[in-house]
Amino acid sequence: MVRQAHQERNQQVTIMPPIIQFDHVSVSAHEKTILSDISFTLSSGEKAVLCGKSGSGKSSVLKTLLGLLPIKRGTVYFQQIPLTPASVQTIRSCAAYIGQEPMLGADNVRDALLLPFQFKAHRGHQPSEAQLIEVLQRLKLPADILKQQSSHISGGEKQRIALARGLLLGKTLYLLDEVTSALDAESKQAVFEVFSDPALTVLSVAHDPEWLERCSIIFELEAGRLIEVKRHGNT
Amino acid sequence: MATLDIQLPQMALLYGLCLLPVLLLWLIGLRLSRDIGISILRMTIQLALVGIYLKTLFELNHPWLNGLWILVMLIVADLSILRRAGLKARYFALATFTAIASSILFSTAYLVILVIQPTHYYDARYIVPLAGMILGNCLQGNVIALERFYSAVRKNENEYATFLMLGATRWEAVRPYFKEAIKAAINPTIAGMATMGLVSLPGMMTGQILGGSEPGLAVKYQIAIMICIFTSTTIASIINLKLSLAIAFNAYDVLRDDVIKKP
């Protein structure tokens, strides 16, 4: 039964239209080319990683997808809709961006987790105390961290709190920029477990071999160009 | 009781007072004589011209001429605010002008028409100095508001982007920096009101007392001007920042770097 459901889900993944598509995308800022002629697709539930030397444009792919960098040529599609000022809200509401040192944006951890629920888009969906603790436990964070000051939190904890915030918001797309580098083995395992959920799509930037091993698609970037796409695993 | 005139020989004597600080500065090794000389000369010429202009303005006392003078002051203030805040006038001149013009006209009109009630509401003796004083203080506030706000957005670029990613609208994402900037803009006026009369005698009151007014009357005018400065600074900074939001960000809510002057 379980196996059948799993197969069905896998089939759904393969026939599903891409959730993200870059179609010959070029990006430049301050007259310097950052990305040049990038094309790739990513389907719902896939876990992908961008690799390459520093300055090869890995993080810029994530930022372009979020509408933070100006697209010079080509089109970015999210759920098959071109990224425009009118549609950018859709991807921003579905995606969670987590960097190396995420901004918590509040004085203590509880306020940081509840911050997005002050905004009109999420007002009225505030999670209960039990939900807060449950999500922290999933990420191997103690419940008493809620009371801690944001300034006393380590980089790795901040990443997991930002991740918890994404989960509380029900985000399905995770854009992770060098996330595992600051995590110890146990926390890393917890993060891996969270992303084993087939409902979550991941586009990440990483060097960590263990993380690369778990991703089904590897995009190799060099000087703003996509030079190789490796697919493996079960997709 | 008219104020005693200062005759030319006495004016010369007055300038002579400057020799003392110049000598002291020279003795401690600060060679500032040139700068001091230029500053004193500029002050003299500029004020002499204003004196002639105001004399003509008061004699003619024509509503359009008075209005034109206020318009010129507003334009100069507009450009000065943007230059000092490090923003390009090409983009923001209209927004800043709208903000300061509406708030200055509102508070000056309120004060002159409803409170002071002179025979002619356009009387240069009232509107020119009052609008000028309110504008001068409003200018400081707007420079602080714009400068603080845009430095904060640039300094906290990542935090701002995080707010956007968490579902905030542009307005929701900038609100923390907006509130801080407005607070910084109006704080000097609030602090000024709290210490008024204790630390120093305010300029306008001193002027009126020298001009022969009763201290009681001078006090009332000082209160009037402080309330108008506070009102117009608050209104102008809020309108100014609000209007600038539509100009300084692109359609993806990212701060445009071409609207800010390179340091």
Q: What does this protein structure show overall?
A:
- The mean pLDDT of chain A is 89.
- In chain A, strand 9 (217-222) and strand 10 (225-231) form a beta hairpin.
- The longest helix of chain A is centred in the N-terminal third of the chain and has 14 residues, at 2-15.
- In chain A, the strands form two sheets. Chain A has a six-stranded mixed sheet, with helices on both faces. Chain A has a four-stranded antiparallel sheet with strand order 2-1-4-5, with helices on one face.
- Chain A has helices at residues 2-15, 58-65, 88-94, 109-114, 129-138, 155-168, 185-195, 209-214, and strands spanning 18-29, 32-43, 47-51, 71-78, 81-82, 95-98, 173-177, 201-205, 217-222, 225-231.
- Chain A has a single domain, classed as P-loop containing nucleotide triphosphate hydrolases (Rossmann fold, 3-Layer(aba) Sandwich), CATH 3.40.50.300.
- In chain A, 32% of the residues lie in helices and 28% in strands.
- Chain A is built from eight helices and ten strands.
- In chain A, helix 5 (129-138) crosses helix 6 (155-168).
- With 235 residues, chain A is α/β, with parallel strands linked by helices.
- The radius of gyration of chain B is 22 Å and the shape is globular.
- Chain B is mainly alpha-helical and 263 residues long.
- In chain B, helix 4 crosses helix 5 and helix 5 (89-116) packs across helix 6.
- Chain B has helices at residues 8-16, 19-27, 33-60, 63-85, 89-116, 124-155, 157-165, 170-195, 203-210, 215-248.
- Chain B is built from ten helices and no strands.
- Chain B folds into two domains: 8-60, no CATH class; 62-259, no CATH class.
- The N and C termini of chain B lie far apart (53 Å).
- The longest helix of chain B has 34 residues, at 215-248.
- The chains are: A alpha/beta (235), B mainly alpha (263).
- The interface between A and B is medium-sized, with 24 and 17 residues.
